[in-house]
Specification:
The chain has 4 helices and no strands. By secondary structure, the chain is mainly α. It has one domain. The radius of gyration is 16 Å and the shape is globular.
Length: 104
């Protein structure tokens, strides 16, 4: 008899769950803000090839994933409210840096 059935919930980050960033951004309501941040970064960078533009957006996504993992590791686990707060803080920090003209 199995007492424990594995379940992957993208909104709860246990130590072994791989992030699904799109799902997290949609569930936290931060997808549009993330896309706006990406658009702002692209404007700051100027004219880029399609490949370079895509690389920049994927780099942003990787940075956000790393940030969420780091925060989760510090706390041990994370629920949707934690993910929302951490994502908002990360986006706010990046947008502030862009507004100040600081290097990304």
């Amino acid at each position: 008899m199995r007492l424990c059935i594995p379940c992957v919930n993208p909104l709860f980050m246990g130590p072994t769950i791989r992030l699904n960033l799109t799902t997290i951004l949609e569930a936290t309501g931060e997808l549009q803000r993330f896309l706006d941040l990406g658009a702002a970064r692209l404007r700051v960078e100027g004219t880029l090839s399609q490949e370079a533009s895509e690389a920049l957006i994927f780099e942003l996504a990787d940075e956000l994933e790393d940030h969420l993992r780091t925060m989760r590791d510090r706390q041990g686990s994370a629920g949707i409210n934690d993910l929302r707060a951490w994502t908002r803080a990360w986006i706010d920090e990046r947008q502030g840096a862009l507004a100040e003209g600081s290097p990304p």
